[in-house]
Amino acid sequence: MGVLSVVLRSRRAATVPALALGALVLSACSGSSLGQSSGGGSGGEIKVGLLVPLSGVYAPLGQDMRNGFQLYLDQHGGKLGGRSVKVVTADEGEGPQTGVPAAQKLVTQDQSSVVVGVVNSATALGLRDFFTESKKPLIVANAGADAITGSGKSEYIWRTSFANGKVGAPLGSAVAKEVDGSVYLIAADYAAGREMVAGFRKTFEAAGGKVAGEKYTPFGKTQDFQPYLSGIRGSGAKAVYGFYAGAEAVSFVKQYKQFGLADKTALYGTGFLTEGGVLDAQGQAAVGVKTSLHYSTEIDTPRNKQFVADYRKAFQKAPTVYTVQAYDAAAVLDKALANTKNSDGTELIKAFAGVGTIDSPRGQWSFDSNHDAQQKYYLREVRSSGGTTVNAVIRELG
Length: 398
Ligand code: PHB
Hints:
The chain is an alpha/beta fold. The protein folds into 2 domains: 46-162 and 303-367, Response regulator (Rossmann fold); 165-293 and 378-397, Rossmann fold (3-Layer(aba) Sandwich), CATH 3.40.50.2300. It has 12 helices and 17 strands. The strands form 3 sheets. Strands 1, 2, 3, 4, 5, 6 and 7 form a 7-stranded mixed β-sheet that branches. The protein has a 7-stranded mixed β-sheet with strand order 9-8-10-11-12-16-17, sandwiched between helices. The structure holds P-hydroxybenzoic acid. The site of P-hydroxybenzoic acid has 11 residues, from loops.
């Protein structure tokens, strides 16, 4: 638990960023003092509900998202589509038990016109019917649950992040070619972990890869990975592919190294395994870990360099994929609100369909017909650089 508290503490210390007192009004979970912004209607101020984890294993991710949304607002004079914005923030917590009532409050009590955020796939799945039935738009800025933009697609749900199955898929065939032997699959036991493994496994096996074993560890409860690491060693696997994020990713990667597996058994995963504050906390233990993701601070474009510099200036640390996904949600709203005076849910979703290309730090992307981000994925490798570690971009994945 020591590592978790270190990560959480370092993130909490960053909750008073330089730009925080700009145009953005953050009102944590309180709807009573929010003034008179309208929940729908036209013109005037628009109220945006921001639903992110402020507690639990994913709290640092929530902070990154909050910062990303805020940076966009501060860069645009506190306005989206020419309209002043009031942000009401609520705590998603660790899953649907906390996340669903918090979202309902943002809509019914706080009268948000749109909700942005959601880290956990299980929360997103639990919110689908509520947003669809109340005809309010939800812009998912992380949670990758496949069904949300697949079998359970909703007119009211749009996603600026990824579908779980798509993040590991491009890595599967690459690992099958790169590793001479079988691969062990391990992930947090909930929708995201299972879907990130399934996406990888499909392309990995199609390319001739052999699975040495598969294990799902209790989500949010596993701090000691030793029994699972013993299982991996006993399986004779030549490499491991895994999904963990936040505090669990820190523990897993550190213990993988301490257990002596890292030198002989290459570690692969979706990029969340080594992202942002997680990578800082892992330190040298993460060097050599290879991941697939749609973002890295190391993407060598003027757009990304400027973004990283602006973010560093505002928050004194590097941005993350979570930051970018929320920053881009603000960009989507900016474009959509510029095209509609009416912030009624049915009008807003029509405007989302017309936002076109988003010029993001991750590269250009647009919504596909399922409301998911159509984007590139990169193969990244953790390398030491200038006394720290970074996710170096090796190449684009097909
Ligand atoms: C998810 O639950 O969908 C999820 C959570 C954390 C991540 C990625 C996906 O880093």
